[in-house]
Specification:
The complex is a heterodimer of chains A (115) and B (114). With 115 residues, chain A is mainly beta. Chain A has no helices and 11 strands. The chains are: A mainly beta (115), B mainly beta (114).
Chain lengths: 115, 114
């Protein structure tokens, strides 16, 4: 158990819908990362938040957005869902996110299925 | 830009045999390299990491990896495979352009044959 929690574990929805994925980082971790794992694109970085502020963006679609709240939990919002958005979405957290020795601890993931 | 290439999407070994999973990196600056393992229906667990210092890095569950700058490699090894090692293994390199996010390889699925 990494200490990172993600809810829900599974999510099934229809095209065009909007969903919210939630992540609670390890106690004391300030940085949250979101990754997408799909069969065709592998594991890709989406976005990073540090202490409530967006720090970096990766291959995140405009239909996707995220935020980190004062209690440091984060939510990833996916809208206008398409079949190709079906994937495993991971959240990872780290103490700071700015140190080379910083380790990212991954949650168990949310499996999104878009029908 | 940083990237990693994992050679072999599937590797099969007999129980008790040597495990060798290959990873080559591309980086214009000294890289920070990681190996993660993903068991079925689970998240990623850090096996080991190389940042600076000793080039032979020991990790959990008997795994180790050696950073070889001349070969731009960071191969993962374990002397004797156990059935419990069956999983998917990902090599990753950390971005050094500010985000510190990880760039992952495509993964290698390890099968251990009894």
């Amino acid at each position: 158990d990494s200490g990172v929690t993600q809810t829900p574990k599974h999510l099934i929805t229809a095209t065009g819908q909007r969903v919210t994925l939630r992540c609670s980082p390890r106690s004391g971790d300030l940085s949250v990362y979101w990754y997408q794992q799909s069969l065709d694109q592998g594991l890709q970085f989406l976005i990073q938040y540090y202490n409530g502020e967006e720090r970096a963006k990766g291959n995140i679609l405009e239909r996707f957005s995220a935020q980190q709240f004062p209690d440091l939990h984060s939510e990833l919002n996916l809208s206008s869902l398409e079949l190709g958005d079906s994937a495993l979405y991971f959240c990872a957290s780290s103490v700071e996110g700015g140190q080379p020795t910083d380790t990212q601890y991954f949650g168990p993931g949310t499996r999104l299925t878009v029908l | 830009a940083q990237s990693v290439t994992q050679l072999g999407s599937h590797v099969s070994v007999s129980e008790g045999a040597l495990v060798l999973l290959r990873c080559n990196y591309s980086s214009s600056v000294p890289p920070y390299l990681f190996w993660y393992v993903q068991y079925p229906n689970q998240g990623l667990q850090l096996l080991l990491k190389y940042t600076t210092g000793a080039t032979l890095v020991k990790g959990i569950n008997g795994f180790e990896a050696e950073f070889k700058k001349s070969e731009t490699s960071f191969h993962l090894t374990k002397p004797s495979a156990h059935m419990s090692d069956a999983a998917e293994y990902f090599c990753a390199v950390r971005s050094q352009t500010g985000a510190n996010n990880l760039f992952f390889g495509t993964g290698t699925r390890l099968t251990v044959i009894p």
